[in-house]
Write a structure and sequence with these properties.
Layout lengths: L14 H15 L8 H36 L3 H7 L5 E12 L2 E11 L7 E3 L10 H11 L4 H12 L6 H11 L3 H6 L11 E12 L7 H9 L17 E12 L6 H4 L19 E8 L4 H15 L7 E5 L3 H14 L3 E5 L1 H12 L8 H15 L3 H15 L7 H12 L6 H7 L6 H12 L11 H15 L3 H16 L13
Parallel strand pairs: 4-7, 7-8
Antiparallel strand pairs: 1-2, 4-5, 5-6
Helix pairs in contact: 1-2, 4-5, 4-6, 6-18, 10-11, 12-13, 12-15, 13-14, 14-15
Length: 509
């Protein structure tokens, strides 16, 4: 269809695009084209539109090159020296390839030169150092953080009509795209909220399978010491020691929502339908951060930075939801003490209920409906503020049945879990104050940010690669990618064009 369109004319840079459009219209209106099925015509029109866009872009660059050449040729020596910091020699015809979302184009520029100085290209194109345009980079980032790199390359090829970027190049572009995320959030001011609005923080961890050289030192040593009982699979209790822990944190606002225990757990026998359970606090203005490169204390500090940006005077009620991990609790309390902020730590009720379900297997079979009633009764007691009574009841029941240590192991673990976190089990106070008591948001973030992308079967990551994908996925989840991309492109230009008068011209190597 496109083989016979006219060659480029020298008079008008857009002649090739106009000639191609004429040929495309002629091809689609021929008698034989009227006999084609619609999918063939659709494909020809799509391919033709992509080539037409490429020719239009090429014509635009050619027009700019022509006008730039005429403008610089009209300047005298002093004018060129003033424009390009002492460079007076004009050299025409410098060309470079640029891969774009519509295909490859050639950019022609004029260089102003002087002995001992790098070339100066007085253009306002803002071209990147590499051959991939910022539009193509944006497409690569959005596709690569959504699925595997192989899937991303397939999607890019469908969009661009050709393999515009290789796998290794895609990985490098993703890493380069994430370098300004910390600076972006440091310069961002969150929207203010009323002093009665709750400020909720939650932290979680999720392991990522890494390449051997990118494990943390303790994990690497554990992997070296590990000996397997079986050659082809892991035995009970054995670990692969191939994961590096990523830390995730969520900060969000919420209005208080007062509830009672039976709003959380149905009473024995189920709900009658006469009373609708009251809903809990609804999260809004959610902000996620995650890192596999930084340690947990740095991620927690970043979450506190976001919280303080929302409440610099510490006038709001800060609620921190945890899962009981001792190391995280220590870091959270240390960070709060360092900043002089009062926090209210609440243990995630879902983790408590999971422990109760495990304990129920000591007293009931897996299919016994009484197990559900038992868990509901114990959970309601804990929600009412009587966690010590629930612990005593569980242990008394195990003693009364004469269970062996192995038979009552899950029940003992649940009791220890409740005792170790007794200071964070005041659910009666939390419900009366309208606080959230479940960390489902950060648990969901762990699945979305890590499991859905970084835990793809067979994937093994380097620290820089995993960090880039993880932070970009968090950025996109926050809904900040469009604003970030504008910020990132400005920072890219600042890194490339360092002269104070860069608004007049830009140095392109």
């Amino acid at each position: 269809m496109t083989a016979g369109y006219a060659a480029a004319a020298t008079a008008d840079p857009f002649d090739r695009a106009a000639s191609f459009l004429t040929c495309l219209v002629d091809s689609l209106s021929r008698p034989e084209a009227l006999l084609l099925p619609h999918e063939r015509v659709e494909e020809d029109a799509e391919n033709g539109a992509r080539e037409l866009a490429r020719l239009l872009l090429q014509g635009h660059f050619d027009l700019r090159a022509r006008r730039e050449e005429a403008k610089l040729a009209a300047l005298d020596t002093s004018g060129r020296a003033q424009l390009a910091a002492g460079r007076t020699r004009l050299e025409k015809g410098h060309r470079r390839q640029l891969a774009t979302v519509v295909g490859p184009v050639t950019v022609t520029r004029c260089a102003l030169r002087a002995p001992g100085l790098p070339n100066c290209y007085p253009a306002v194109l803002g071209l990147p150092r590499e051959r991939h345009s910022l539009g193509l980079r944006r497409l690569v980032v959005l596709e690569a953080v959504r699925g595997s790199y192989d899937q991303a390359l397939e999607a890019i090829e469908r969009r661009c009509g050709t393999r515009a970027v290789g796998k290794r190049q895609a990985e490098q572009l993703v890493r380069a795209a994430a370098v300004d995320i910390a600076a972006f959030y440091a310069a961002r001011t969150p929207a203010p909220a009323a002093s009665t609005t709750l400020l909720v923080l939650s932290v979680d961890g999720k392991g990522i399978v890494m390449r051997p050289g990118h494990l943390r030192e303790a994990t690497r040593k554990a992997a070296q010491r590990a000996t397997r009982t079986l050659r082809t699979r892991l035995s009970a209790g054995e670990k692969t020691c191939r994961k590096r822990m990523a830390t995730l944190a969520v900060v969000h606002d919420a209005n208080p929502a007062v509830r009672r225990p039976h709003d959380i757990i149905a009473p024995p026998g189920g709900r009658t339908g006469g009373r609708i359970p009251r809903k809990g606090p609804k999260a809004r203005a959610k902000w996620l951060t995650a890192s596999v490169q930084r340690d947990a204390d740095q991620v927690i500090a970043a979450a506190f930075d976001e919280a303080e940006a929302r409440d610099p005077q510490h006038r709001r009620c800060w609620v921190v939801l945890v899962d009981g991990a001792e190391h995280q609790l220590e870091l959270i309390h240390a960070e709060a003490a360092r900043r002089g902020v009062t926090i209210h730590v609440v243990l995630d009720i879902v983790h408590v209920i999971e422990k109760l379900w495990a304990a129920s297997r000591c007293f009931h079979t897996a299919t016994d409906p009484a197990a559900e009633t038992w868990v509901g009764a114990q959970a309601a007691r804990i929600l009412a503020g009587d966690a010590p009574g629930a612990v005593t009841d569980i242990r008394t029941q195990a003693d009364r049945l004469g269970l062996s240590p192995d038979q009552r192991a899950a029940a003992d673990r649940a009791c220890r879990y409740l005792e170790n976190n007794a200071a964070h089990l005041h659910y009666d106070q939390a419900l009366a104050a309208g606080w959230p008591i479940a960390s489902g948001i950060v648990e969901g973030a762990a699945r979305h940010l890590v499991a859905d992308r970084l835990d793809i079967t067979g994937s093994r990551w380097t620290v820089p690669g995993a960090e880039a994908v993880l932070t970009l996925r968090a950025l996109i989840s926050n809904g900040d990618f469009p604003q970030y991309w504008t910020f990132h492109t400005h920072r890219e230009r600042e890194r490339l064009y360092l002269r104070p008068d860069q608004h007049n011209y830009e140095l392109l190597a």
